[in-house]
């Protein structure tokens, strides 16, 4: 029971940190501000997170948890049909729900810290690897893709996704955004189609 209460309190603090970072910028958020925002004494926050660096590490774990939710419809469909549908996969991976699940500004503010802090860098690397591994696990459960190199395919897909989202975050014009998004989605769809065809050709 104590452990559950502790985890819930930590989650509350991290969520408060995220909410303030989204509104004010992560660099402008202090433990005192989080305390005021949550109606919680700063000493209690420091009991769980003695410094802001540890709050950032907690925030990175929160990013991962939120981003994993993008896979839920794919997992549900896979469990039902035992097959990965490329069109569904591409649409989910390029869904604007990423932006709803976690704010881009907070994500990139945390990412900027990887250039100054080795621990934060390692945690960000873990985050990216986990997203790739989750995709690999999904591909491993598909009867066709499982016969190929799913780790390499997941890597290729995320190289496109990560580059695409970085670039798309700079585009404000809606028509240009949709046009570029369509190009990136098509690129990943072609990767999936090509891999599927190569596997089927090899097994004829």
Account of the protein in words:
It is a single chain. With 204 residues, the chain is mainly alpha-helical. It folds into two domains: 1-50, Arc Repressor Mutant, subunit A (Orthogonal Bundle), CATH 1.10.10; 64-202, Tetracycline Repressor, domain 2 (Orthogonal Bundle). It contains eleven helices and no strands. Helix 1 packs across helix 2 (31-38) and helix 4 (52-68) runs parallel beside helix 9. It starts with a helix and ends with a helix.
Which key phrases capture this entry?
Arc Repressor Mutant, subunit A, about 0% strand, mainly alpha, 2 domains, 11 helices, about 200 residues
| Beta-strand residue percentage | under 5%
Task: Show unreliable segments.
Answer: none
Give the name of the CATH architecture of the largest domain: Orthogonal Bundle
CATH superfamily of the largest domain: Tetracycline Repressor, domain 2
